[in-house]
Amino acid sequence: MRKFLLSLMTVMAVVSCTATEGKLRVKMNCKPVGDSIVAIVNAGEENEVRMNFTGKQGVFDFEIDVPSPANMYLVEPGALRGERASIYQIPAIPDEEVSVTAEDGSRYDVNGSKFYAQFHEADIVIENAQKEGRDVTQVIYDFIKAHPDYEASAYIVTMMRDLEKMKEAVALLKPDVREGRMKPLYQGMLDQIEAAMKAEEESAKKQSAGIEAPDFTLNDINGKPLSLSSLRGKYVIIDFWGSWCGWCIKGFPEMKKYYNTYKGKFEILGVDCNDTEEKWKDAVKKHELPWLHVYNPRSSQVLSDYGIQGFPTKIIVGPDGKIVKTIVGEDPAFYTLLDDLFGK
Questions:
Q1: How far apart are CA 64 and CA 321, in angstroms?
Q2: How does DSSP classify residue 56?
Q3: Which of 71, 249, 262, 323 is 20–30 Å from 256 (CA)?
């Protein structure tokens, strides 16, 4: 398995040493790691478990509570301080034993008891496919087809990225595997992907060209109400952003340049999201943003009304109040569109 790098938040320091039901025993021999490792089960979820374990020169032997199959990250402590450091991502399966080995910083191997022996077999196949530039989803599908009785086959369904192919792969599994302990894990992934696809479809409908832009009224930088409809009769760019959004901030210099170049031909209405009012006002002042601004409180329905899925999102509204185009992210296509609209 290839090694990758990540930065994470702080962890709790807890040590476990007695083998009981519902635990995973972890043996590590990873030369790039020092004398401490942080284990994070279900990282990013509310029920995640975080523990710090001590070893010696990359050698560890510990147990961690794993109520049900999940994902686990074994993290070098430096990553928790925002440093570039190693993370080993592995399945976390209760009542099993896993060994993680790494000779250098380029890759690592996962092996162990029955489940992990199966996973190791699949992992090597997937790694080789990645090296050869083959379609990994198809390779995983083919492995599952050849090994429908492997519990690891149910796990690697979560490593596929094509929803329909994932469903087909699940159907290939033997009934006891398909309905076994891995089901909540792969089914959760399927549900997440379906929900995301549905949200994207709904978002696309709400942001489609020709749709009337939903009106809203929010307080401006001076605390006075400002409505979108009050700008009817001119082109308006609704810029959904936040002071926490790096790409939003990176785009401001170019936005200011175009705002000045085509001054009077359009207006920008910045809609600040997921900020405190103080951070919003500080950001407007710091970056010297000359256009209109309103604050969008978390209780507002504006993000839902416009189907906002990411930041920045810029929605160009025509003089008639209808959506002309939606651009998600800091995309050069946005500025090309402004040239096409106003550069004539």
A1: 57
A2: B
A3: 323
DSSP state of 188: H
d(CA 155, CA 67): 16
- The band of 1, judged by pLDDT with boundaries at 50, 70 and 90, is low
Q: What is the pTM of this model?
A: 0.68
Alpha carbon distance 6, 281 (integer Å): 32
Per-residue pLDDT band for 19 (boundaries 50, 70, 90) equals: very low
On whether the CB atoms of residues 137 and 160 are closer than 8 A, the answer is yes
Neighbouring C-alpha atoms within 13 Å toward the C-beta of 54: 3
The radius of gyration of the chain from alpha carbons, rounded to an integer in Å, stands at 25
Looking up tokens 């031909």 gives 265
Q: What are phi and psi of 192, to 5 degrees?
A: -65, -45
Q: CA angle, 227 as apex, 319 and 277 as ends, to 5°?
A: 130
Q: Is 246 helix (H, G, I), strand (E, B) or coil?
A: helix
Q: Which residues of 184-203 are buried (b: 16+ CB within 10 A; e: fewer)?
A: ebbeebbeebeeeeeeeeeb
SS3 content of the chain, % helix, strand, coil (to 5): 35, 30, 35
Nearest to 8 by CA among 87, 79, 86: 79
Identity of the amino acid at 129: A
Angle between helices 183-206 and 163-172 (to 10 degrees): 160
**Dist. CA 246–CA 257, nearest whole Å:** 19
Distance CA 112, CA 110 (A): 7
How many of the other CB atoms lie within 10 Å of CB of 83? 11
Torsion over CA: 292, 297, 298, 301 (sign) = negative
Q: What is the rounded CA–CA span in Å between residue 175 and residue 170? A: 10
Q: Are 51 and 28 in contact (CB under 8 A)?
A: no
